[in-house]
Write a structure and sequence with these properties.
Number of helices: 17
Strand content: 15-25%
Strand order of the largest sheet: 2-1-10-9-11-12-13-14-15
Oligomer: single chain
Bound molecules: adenosine monophosphate
Radius of gyration: 23 Å
Number of strands: 25
């Protein structure tokens, strides 16, 4: 018994407690829908606790990685893995074998849970590793092995003694060639999840469609947020507009999140209604990449309520949001879209974001002076796993440097304008130009290379490579593309390869901004 009177008012915060509560309060209500299977909150909790019981002896406190699309297994892992006392490592299913091996080795994962859809990738990975993790096949087509594992396990759940203990490690392509492991803790995920519930209006009547991959920032903390609200999770293993619209109708979906590419796909699908006619408004939380005002207007006309959010893996996803003033709804469409295109203000659990100029001073709130966005608050990462130098560099004075550039409007709402970091964002996926450059430079015919983001109607941006070949060496565009494809995920492969001289400064440094400006000016000409 704890006789310290202060213990009365202190319990370590953990998002796992939401599932205990949901099972107690909403036990007989539907928690998870995946294809034609559905489970109540009581069943969902039991399955997660059994998964914990099965994994604990295999992991012995070391991380458990998972490679799976948005199935019920992902939701169970978000609770079951930490309940086993092991940090969760979700891996982007689009990565190449080499990239997956790097993450498994760097995180020192003891177990890899994987969907049978990814058997081929996992076999290649395991064959190439000296000490591969223990494999657990889980998901449709596993021949019942996952269900047997759960049936035979003894339910358990370890609550963290320290709320700042490691909950998960999320690998992100930052500004260097290799991905960095962003460490989340229980307290941060708990607070961020509650902020998501409140800001997006999730209740026990809500149904959440899983369009954001749970391998990105733990699905922006929605595995825990939706559970906290006692709302219904509707799984969507593959983002397909026809299936999404069918589920929106059949399961009365009220909420979904995603990058602009996902909203664009939904709005432009032949199955899209002229106007959404469900009983409730659909709320789409958009973020991860810049959204065009025309897309926001098209969604608005369809009766979809769009909320823009902004954040990074380092901030558990949405750190800021365009907090909507009800009065703005009465404005003409054009004004509404202009306001909606702003990334807004910090959420409940972050501190007011700062915009700082190159002189280190906060910029005036004039809607014109640009600066870098600095973030701090209860939804910032613990740091990068096994990389103290990068952690210090990211927040040298206690304020996290986002690498995003923006302006502050007179009403305190922030708007992104550019990025200072060398990152290309394609369909919401981050690509570090350096990693693509390194892959191209490893081709024997290549002397020099620069990779920049070029505009693309579907993906927002796509990588384009500018290559100088060695004297007398030969390589075609296809040779370079094939070379990169064998090393990196497909979405990182350049869409074009341009051969020729590179623009340089007087000291010989490649001027990537000149290449970038050329690509974007070409677009301006096409639009005009
Ligand atoms: P990630 O760490 O993969 O989640 O990527 C974070 C980056 O995505 C940010 O640093 C931004 O450059 C970009 N990003 C996120 N949200 C938005 C948004 N609403 N508008 C424009 N860019 C965004």
């Amino acid at each position: 018994m704890n006789s310290d009177p202060r213990s009365l008012s202190f319990e370590p915060l953990s998002p796992l407690s939401f599932l205990d509560r949901a099972a107690a309060v909403h036990g007989s209500r539907i928690a998870v829908v995946d294809g034609d299977r559905r489970w109540t909150y009581a069943e969902f909790r039991d399955r997660c606790r059994r998964l914990a019981g099965a994994l604990a002896p295999l992991a012995e406190g070391r991380p458990v990685a998972i490679l799976a699309p948005n199935t019920h297994v992902m939701l169970e892992a978000a609770h079951g893995v930490p309940w086993a006392g092991a940090p969760l490592v979700t891996i982007n299913t689009r990565l190449s074998a080499d990239e997956v091996i790097y993450i498994l080795e760097h995180s020192e994962s003891a177990v890899l849970l994987h969907d049978p859809q990814l058997d081929e990738l996992v076999t290649t990975v395991v064959d190439r590793m000296a000490q591969p993790p223990r494999l657990v096949r889980a998901g449709p087509g596993d021949g019942g092995s996952y269900e047997n594992l759960l049936a035979e396990a003894t339910p358990m759940g370890i609550a963290p003694a320290d709320e700042r203990s490691l909950l998960s490690i999320n690998y992100t392509s930052g500004t260097t060639g290799r991905p960095k492991g962003v460490m989340y803790h229980h307290r941060g995920a708990y607070l961020q999840a509650l902020a998501m519930v409140a800001h997006t209006g999730l209740t026990a009547s809500s149904a959440y469609l899983w369009t954001v991959p749970m391998f990105h920032c733990n699905g922006w903390t929605f595995p825990w947020a939706v559970t906290a609200a006692g709302a219904k999770h509707v799984c969507l293993p593959k983002v397909d507009a026809a299936v999404a619209w069918r589920l929106i109708r059949e399961d009365a979906v009220t909420h979904l999140c995603g990058a602009p590419a996902v909203l664009s796909m939904l709005v432009n699908a032949p199955e899209a209604p002229d106007r959404h006619a469900g009983s409730d408004v659909i709320r789409f939380v958009i973020g991860g990449a810049p959204a065009s005002p025309s897309l926001l207007a098209a969604a608005d006309n369809m009766g979809i309520d769009v909320t823009q959010v902004y954040g990074l893996t380092e901030t558990y996803g949405p750190a800021m949001l365009c907090d909507w003033h009800p009065e703005w709804s009465k404005l003409p469409t054009e004004d509404r879209s202009r306001l909606r295109a702003r990334q807004g203000v910090a959420n409940f659990v972050g501190l007011t974001a700062r915009v700082v100029g190159t002189d280190g001073r906060d910029v005036p709130a004039d809607g014109a002076t640009m600066g870098e966005i600095l973030l701090r608050g209860n939804n910032l990462m613990l740091g990068y796993f096994k990389d103290e130098a990068a952690t210090i560099a990211a927040a040298p004075d206690g304020w996290f440097r986002s690498g995003d550039l923006g302006v502050l409007h007179p009403d305190g709402y922030l708007e992104l304008r550019d990025r200072s970091k060398d990152v290309i964002i394609s369909g919401g996926e981050n690509i570090t130009s350096i990693e693509v450059e390194q892959a191209i430079a490893s081709h024997p015919a290549v002397l020099e290379v620069a990779v920049v983001g070029a505009p693309d109607d579907r993906w927002g941006e796509v990588p384009v490579a500018f290559v100088v070949l060695r004297p007398a060496a030969k390589a075609s565009e296809q040779d370079i593309v094939d070379h990169v494809r064998s090393r990196l995920a497909r979405f990182k492969v350049p869409k074009r390869v341009v051969f020729g001289e590179l623009p340089r400064t007087s000291t010989g440094k490649i001027q990537k901004h000149v290449l970038r400006e050329r690509e974007w000016a070409g677009r301006a000409r096409r639009i005009a």
